């Protein structure tokens, strides 16, 4: 299970994910970080798609541990588009999961200069509304 932060009002604009992405955000609101895994070939993938990108069969959702490692990242120091213009500096990272997929997300709760490749991070979720939450990453607690 991952923490769901509900005491911080959502301020990143409207979120209306499509039918495939929606499950990911709904699971996050329930404290679960999920990715797709193919029942035929075992491929894990993110972002979610209708078919397995490796063999074309139908993938299923699996729950992950919520643990990850920074594969690479960039520090966003300027952003000209609302509602993001007040956010910089922030870190946008690619996170490798032990379950196999690589996710993009923000690394928070740390000085942007202290983020590094190989860093152990854990997922948490920021509540958007009653049904949706956005997974984010922070340094692993232990
Ligand atoms: Zn497959």
Keywords:
OB fold (Dihydrolipoamide Acetyltransferase, E2P); 1 helix; mainly beta; three-stranded antiparallel β-sheet; six-stranded mixed β-sheet; 142 residues; binds zinc ion; 9 strands
Number of helical runs? 1
| Molecular shape | globular
**Count of discrete structural domains:** 1
Strand content: 35-45%
Structure in words:
The protein is mainly beta and 142 residues long. The chain has one domain (3-139): OB fold (Dihydrolipoamide Acetyltransferase, E2P). The protein has one helix and nine strands; from the N terminus they run βαββββββββ. It has one helix spanning 19-29; strands spanning 3-5, 34-38, 44-45, 59-63, 67-76, 90-96, 102-107, 120-127, 133-139. β6 and β7 (102-107) form a beta hairpin. The protein starts with a strand and ends with a strand. Bound molecules: zinc ion. The site of zinc ion has 8 residues, from loops.
